[in-house]
Amino acid sequence: MTTKANTLLLESHLKTLRLPTMLAEYPGVVRQCAERDATYESFFEHLAELEVNARAAKATERRLKQARFPLAKELSEFDFSAVPKLNKSKMLQLARCEFVDERANLVFLGAPGTGKTHLAIATGRAACRVGHRVRFFTAASLANLYREAWDDRQVLRFEASLRRLDAIVVDELGYVPLDKTGAEHLFGFFSQCYEQTSLIITTNLPFAEWPATFAGDERLTGALLDRLTHRVHILELRGDSYRLKSSMKTTKQGNQSRGRTTTKQQP
Ligand code: ADP
Ligand code: MG
What we know:
Number of strands: 5
Bound molecules: adenosine-5'-diphosphate, magnesium ion
Number of helices: 12
């Protein structure tokens, strides 16, 4: 027979042990298990499972938040038929994020609007879900953060914070050319990540054109590419801009519906 004192004590113990899901769920699980005549072990296992699942979901939420993705793009929303030349099965396999365990890198290469950032974010989010710590930067924001850290004599501290990550997304490499200091900082960044942290990079430039981004420094870019491409998966996105296509579609639909309205208004 369960007394009120039992219940109060149990709830206090669960609070002390910080088991909020068990605390919230146990009355329902008690009822279900009593109805099914379940064993004590299965009751306890079910309750523990609920706590573990809730904790895992919370940890994933925390990792997704800490990654600071600018948008919540998912692989399920990606229309592969828009980029038929993209190796879909390779993309799906990469989204399992074993490459992060192997500390390999991933490069999305293609013209603007072809879905590089979408896929980089989706892969980063998938990595968060399997338990990796991820952070999103644009190449320009990363160079700026290095510059600020340098000015404040905090580079070591900043790099230590990066070392805690399993994967780093560097978006839009090549859009904005870096000056000499920016190039040197990013070279330091690539060196530090080599075999320690996976990089997920999006770029509009083939590797041969990277020196232009890195202040025209061929030697530094060569050394950087050497590290980056030691273990790399490259996915090329060819095709027209999805952005442009969808905005043209919207404009066309808009014109058509405007056309219909005009027709209706005619006497
Ligand atoms: P990029 O980084 O290559 O310039 P984005 O990933 O930013 O391109 O894509 C531009 C917009 O189009 C985004 O809103 C993105 O979600 C969408 N998009 C691009 N390609 C696809 C696709 N194949 N399926 C669904 N949405 C796409
Ligand atoms: Mg982009």
